[in-house]
From TrEMBL:
GO BP of this protein: division septum assembly
Function text: Cell division protein that is part of the divisome complex and is recruited early to the Z-ring. Probably stimulates Z-ring formation, perhaps through the cross-linking of FtsZ protofilaments. Its function overlaps with FtsA.
Coiled coil: none
Taxonomic source organism: Actinoallomurus iriomotensis
Annotated protein name in UniProt: Uncharacterized protein
Keywords attached to this entry: Cell cycle, Cell division, Membrane, Septation, Transmembrane, Transmembrane helix
InterPro entries in the record: Cell_div_SepF, Cell_div_SepF/SepF-rel, SepF-like_sf
Length: 166
């Protein structure tokens, strides 16, 4: 059907509108995408402040009666939970076990990373650390096990075992 549409003082037919959309539509869509990306980059691309992400505030999410270490251990357990659909087997190889009882985070993180990279199973007793430092170490250990497809096991409230991938 032939229809006339009035836009302001111009009169256009449906076929003229469709031909305009066919001719200019891809260009307009590309222009819109470029503008959206530019807006996102302008708003979201800012240099990070190292102090901003260097610490994690467990106190903000700690319900009464639960320590930040308990929450970190539960998060690590949930993150590294066994998935029945994967073919990985979470066996612990005790032949190369390294045992730590750290008192501070920085040195412990370095040693754990070194031994984990070498393929050793690591047992970490968190009893000598305060809860905040222990929670940071558990988060660090959880991160390296997830990144390398390893496993983390919670043995007791203060002991975890890291198992590197095969």
């Amino acid at each position: 059907m032939f229809q006339l549409r009035r836009y302001g003082s111009w009169v256009r037919t449906d076929s003229e509108v469709l031909s305009f959309v066919e001719a200019c539509g891809p260009t307009l869509a590309l222009l819109f995408a470029v503008l959206v990306v530019a807006f996102i980059l302008q708003r979201g691309w800012k240099p990070r402040d190292d102090r901003q992400h260097a610490t994690f505030d467990y106190a903000a999410r700690t319900p009464q009666g639960r320590s930040e270490l308990t929450i970190a251990l539960e998060d690590a357990s949930a993150l590294n939970a066994y998935d029945a659909h994967t073919r990985r087997d979470p066996d612990v190889r005790l032949a190369s076990l390294v045992r730590f009882e750290p008192s501070e985070y920085q040195a412990a993180a370095y040693e754990v990373a070194r031994h984990f990279r070498e393929g050793n199973v690591i047992s970490i007793d968190l009893g000598a650390m305060d809860n905040h430092q222990a929670a940071r170490l558990v988060d660090f250990c959880s991160g390296i096990t997830v990144m390398s497809s390893g496993w983390i096991f919670r043995v007791t409230d203060k002991v975890i075992v890291l198992n590197p991938p095969d």
